[in-house]
Amino acid sequence: MASIDSIRREYERYPPNGLRRFTRWFTKRIPTRLYARALLIIIIPMVLLQSVIAFVFMERHWQTVTQRLSMAVTRDIAATIDVINSFPDKTAQDEMIRIARERLDLSVAIEPAGDLPPPRPKPFFSILDQTLSEEITRQIRLPFWIDTVGNSNIVEIRIKLENSILRVFAKRSQAYASNTHIFLLWMVGTSLVLLVIAILFLRGQIRPILKLTQAAESFGKGQRMPDDFRPRGADEVRRAGIAFIKMRERIERQIEQRTAMLSGVSHDLRTILTRFRLQLALVSDGPELDALNKDIDDMQSMLDSYLSFARGEAEEDVGVMSLKTTVEKVAADGRLRGANVSVTVEGDDDINVRPNAFDRLLTNLVSNACRHADEVTIHAQNRGKWLTIAIDDDGPGIPIDAREDVFRPFYRLDEARNQDETGSGLGLAIVRDIARSHGGDVMLSDSAMGGLRATVRLPV
């Protein structure tokens, strides 16, 4: 028998369909930015609190005060009716009308007997109408007609007596707590003031986080960190900023050490290869020596490839270059390889990239396509916040299950399309490394031309 804990875990893992739908619906509609979510965290409790306060006030204070005022007005009217019934002569009634006007602040008139007007439609929400009707029914117990609708400051009450109709005009403020709107205005006004203060405070707290995000994105794209970046804001944000600066310094120090080591290795190996080349030059010519010279050239090229991949062009600064000029240059190199290369460029011409690295990225992709295909098209589009370059060919392509493997260093296919001229197996690995160092990526898919499509997508 399943335990309670296992049932609860299963319920939490697979909630009911209705709950899942509501969760997805709610997740899609709440804002994603921290600033908006922080405002919601402030606004929602404030609105709930104010709603509860308003409800309690209306339910307790407003309704209670209105009920007591209506009770007092009804009591005065009941007393007036008792006097009229006790002293039916005209002189006593006139005196009662005067007393009601001067002492009770009620305008009273006695009209001949007749029918009351038809009942007026009751308002959708009126505490006064409901409370006053209940009090007249409870205290006077005679047929009546009241008019509390509208913005008039007067409430009219007609009561059917035995031989006449008593018509009473009372001020609305005598039976109704009419100053309630002041409380509501104060409540809404203070809420708006608190909201403005919260917005100003949140903007000051969110700004350091945005600065930290911008600095991290710039560092991830290989760009210089903004000069005005300093850890600011709350303690947690400051600690995150300081941790980021220390991490950046460690990474830069590691890159500098690796670059220095690679430069030393490159210098030593190039010296040895140069000695080999000089020793071979002193020997008489022959087919064996041509093969050895070819091996030295291949070793030199492979060494350059390895060092470029390990170095990753990370030390190069970002600059502005012409997209059209760069693509046309790479296309011209592809045509020299015997392929028919066509180019289309759309959008802005200026791009902010690391020039040498970006040129190498396009050169590797286009030369790889030209090596395996006769027709190659390059479509570059620089619009919005993204630069997209699609390179299509009519070659044999790459199997779907191997399209991620070819980006691994030294991975080879039988018809290895990730090899550069020297067959080092680093062509596509270098391409992806450069693309990701710019904050983008490169993907492989089927081409409409029947071969392979390489799509480069970089933020600009």
TrEMBL record:
InterPro entries assigned to the protein according to its UniProt record, in alphabetical order: 2C_sensor_his_kinase (IPR050980), HAMP_dom (IPR003660), HATPase_C_sf (IPR036890), HATPase_dom (IPR003594), His_kinase_dom (IPR005467), HisK_dim/P_dom (IPR003661), HisK_dim/P_sf (IPR036097), Sig_transdc_His_kin-like_C (IPR004358)
Gene3D superfamilies assigned: 1.10.287.130, Histidine kinase-like ATPase, C-terminal domain
Histidine kinase domain segment(s): 264-460
SUPFAM superfamilies the UniProt entry points to: ATPase domain of HSP90 chaperone/DNA topoisomerase II/histidine kinase, Homodimeric domain of signal transducing histidine kinase
Top-level EC class: transferase
Membrane topology: Multi-pass membrane protein
Transmembrane segments annotated in the record for this chain: 34-58, 182-202
Reactions that this protein is recorded to catalyse: ATP + protein L-histidine = ADP + protein N-phospho-L-histidine
Name the record gives this protein: histidine kinase
